[in-house]
Amino acid sequence: FQPKRLAGKTLLITAGPTFEAIDPVRGITNLSSGKMGFALARAAREAGAQVTLVAGPVSLPTPRGVQRIDVRSARQMHDTVLPLAPRHDVFVATAAVADWRPATLAEHKIKKDGKKQAPTFELTENPDILAAVAALRGAKPYCVGFAAESENLLEHARAKLKRKGIPLIVGNLGPATFGRDDNALLLVDATTQQALPADGGTADKLSLARLLVADIAARLQAAHHP
Ligand code: C5P
């Protein structure tokens, strides 16, 4: 039995990688299957929320009842998310957004023929979508970030909370979670940390998503009825 803990709530979720084009046939991207974000969208829907899922390039089916918007680049994801954010109660940023993009986009395929030297690419910084949503004035959602760190997870997560101005970070405890179905999470807020699953083991991403959704619902309720 799944209680409808998020009935009447709206959730905005980013998922997957972004793809930053170099030319019409090439680009740079991050490793991300999108599985965690899609599992969260499904779990939030099951919990009664209205869910908008903004997805980078992934090959995953849309969870039933979820409104999905496909994007490719970080800027497209940013420009899709920002206007939607004020209309949502919660924003969960699971996307592995590329930090940089090529400074220029070549109109045609860059050719190898006759060139003695390999091309070099100048990169420019992408917008931080999560920080931008957290910095919205007026109505803004409860913001949840993800952190994939290879070391000192707690320390980095706390620093990230401050830097992005958000109340909750979800750290990936599993060493190699990309594309895998099982994982362990560490929920970090300004004063507490809590492992999911609570027994310190691992769980599949849908089970973790359901636990995380229940936790977020409890935090929302505490925020409204402290
Ligand atoms: O700064 P860092 O990439 O480590 O932060 C990770 C968190 O910030 C994730 O929740 C990710 O979805 C979000 N993020 C974002 N836009 C970016 C970079 C990260 O929303 N450009």
TrEMBL record:
Pathway: Cofactor biosynthesis; coenzyme A biosynthesis; CoA from (R)-pantothenate: step 2/5; Cofactor biosynthesis; coenzyme A biosynthesis; CoA from (R)-pantothenate: step 3/5. Binds 1 FMN per subunit. The keyword Membrane does not apply. Keywords: Decarboxylase, Flavoprotein, FMN, Ligase, Lyase, Magnesium, Metal-binding, Multifunctional enzyme. GO terms for molecular function: FMN binding; metal ion binding; phosphopantothenate--cysteine ligase activity; phosphopantothenoylcysteine decarboxylase activity. One of its GO terms (cellular component) is phosphopantothenoylcysteine decarboxylase complex. Residues 6-218 form the DNA/pantothenate metabolism flavoprotein C-terminal domain. It catalyses: N-[(R)-4-phosphopantothenoyl]-L-cysteine + H(+) = (R)-4'-phosphopantetheine + CO2; (R)-4'-phosphopantothenate + L-cysteine + CTP = N-[(R)-4-phosphopantothenoyl]-L-cysteine + CMP + diphosphate + H(+). Residues 11-226 are annotated as: Phosphopantothenate--cysteine ligase. Its cofactor is FMN; Mg(2+). One of its GO terms (biological process) is pantothenate catabolic process. Its EC number is 4.1.1.36, 6.3.2.5. In the C-terminal section; belongs to the PPC synthetase family. Catalyzes two sequential steps in the biosynthesis of coenzyme A. In the first step cysteine is conjugated to 4'-phosphopantothenate to form 4-phosphopantothenoylcysteine. In the second step the latter compound is decarboxylated to form 4'-phosphopantotheine. Catalyzes two steps in the biosynthesis of coenzyme A. In the first step cysteine is conjugated to 4'-phosphopantothenate to form 4-phosphopantothenoylcysteine, in the latter compound is decarboxylated to form 4'-phosphopantotheine. This is Coenzyme A biosynthesis bifunctional protein CoaBC. The chain holds residues 191 to 416 of 417 of the full protein.
